[in-house]
Amino acid sequence: MNSPVYQTVIVGGGFTGLFTALHLAHEHYPRSVILIDKDERFCFKPLLYEYFDGEMDTFQVVPRFSELLKGSGVIFVQDTVQSIDLHQREVKLVSGNSYNYSNLVLALGSVTGYHQVEGAKEYAFPFWTQADAIALDKHLRDCLQRAVQTEDSEQRQKLLTVVIVGGGASGVEMAATLADFLPHWYSALGGNSSEIRVVLLNHGKEILDGDINNPLREIAERELQKRAVPIEMIVEAEATAIGSNSIQYKRNEQIETLATHTTVWTAGTSTHPLIKDLPISKEHRDRRDRPLVTPTLQLLDFPEVFVGGDCAAVQDNSLPPTAQVAYQQGANIAQNLKALALGKELKPVKVNIRGTLLKLGINDAAANLFNVFEVAGETAHLIRQGTYLTLLPTAIHDFKATTEWVDEEIFHHHLDPHDVGKKVVQAVEIVGAGVVGILAARKLLKMLGDGETRD
Question: Are residues 263 and 132 in the same domain?
Fold first, then answer.
């Protein structure tokens, strides 16, 4: 099927793609907008750990695109892109449908990179999507159930050992999360929680090396040892092969083997295959094979195409692959698309890095705010979740998710009624939404008036 030429097609419904679509709708963009993604749901990746360990619900972390785009005028197409023809300005889908465009936004993000490690793709668990979280959850529950039923101590130890490959932010957050809730799950089954073993395997000498979260490294190293079970860190270790019940790694020129039934892969990403296939010369790509874009996020040889997020490299401006960068780029792409449609001048994209937020276990985190000061512990946890909740894609979804979070965090997790006022003030300042303040104030007054406490 061939659609009208005067339309904008957005490929990829991550932060850049979705926020571009929503901002175009908000800006009353004079052309039709089509958003294409292979999945039914948007995945708020920074909060995928909370979805995984049960701290947050499905509608908060992986809401349906249909819900987020309702009333926006944006057409959502759930399909897989087969190819992109930049010369013919056509996007072809696996279903056989195709869409022509006057402008194209590429927001495909990146994909899990296994770096040619033997068995990694077959046996390691990635953690990138809702499906990944569900698969890992099912596998771990099965391992714990089998462990509590076996009398073979060697087999039980394999079942209870989890290895995370990669000491970047994703690996650190995954290790901390698992080290907190796996012991809880196993104890609930009647097992000995001290038998749980969480190992973080890092290629470099230090975790978070070269990562935007590097300033939080000392806090992270300290907090990782405070989990329900301490996290073992094996550094300067390069994963060389992964099997169904073991992982091999090279350390000090020696190959060592670690028995485990669960290997989680967080050791980097690769450029999306569709981006690699674009007819863009090597001179117009970076060393990771991503296309170079202008300061207005346009392709050098195809200015009608905008590219943002993880799948683009801005000329002379290195940006970290984070949600805050991606959603700001989405807003700026939308502004430039509208300017282009109205014949106005396009403006260079300005990204404001507001700091970093790192999950370090259940109800624990570290925050580096505007590179000015650092916060750790429960306060950082509140800042992290409150900050991300204010970035949720629509006002209605923001309200639903945030009010539920405030009610849970402030009124269900804290027993001391004299401390509630302080917690409410913290949450309201963090969330920054007047309606949440009203909700919190009403709840506080009721609690103080009734002498209510929570279990």
Answer: yes
Asked if residue 124 and residue 108 are part of one domain, the reply reads no
Residue 351 is encoded by which pair of tokens?
A: 């990204």
State the pLDDT at residue 427.
40
User: By the 8 A CB rule, do 352 and 341 touch?
Assistant: no
Ramachandran quadrant class, 96 (left: phi over 0; alpha: psi -120 to 50; beta: rest): left
Q: Are residues 96 and 152 in the same domain?
A: no
pLDDT tens for each residue of 164-220: 999 999 999 999 999 999 999 999 999 999 999 999 999 999 999 988 888 899 999
Assign 436 to helix, strand or coil. Answer: helix
- Max CA pair span of the chain: 74
> What CA–CA distance (Å, rounded) separates 100 from 89?
6
Return the amino acid letter for 446: K
pLDDT tens per residue, range 423-441: 433 443 443 333 333 333 3
Q: Which two tokens stand for residue 306?
A: 């905008």
Q: Write the DSSP symbol of residue 298.
A: B
Q: Could you report how far apart the first and last alpha carbons of the chain are, in Å?
A: 57
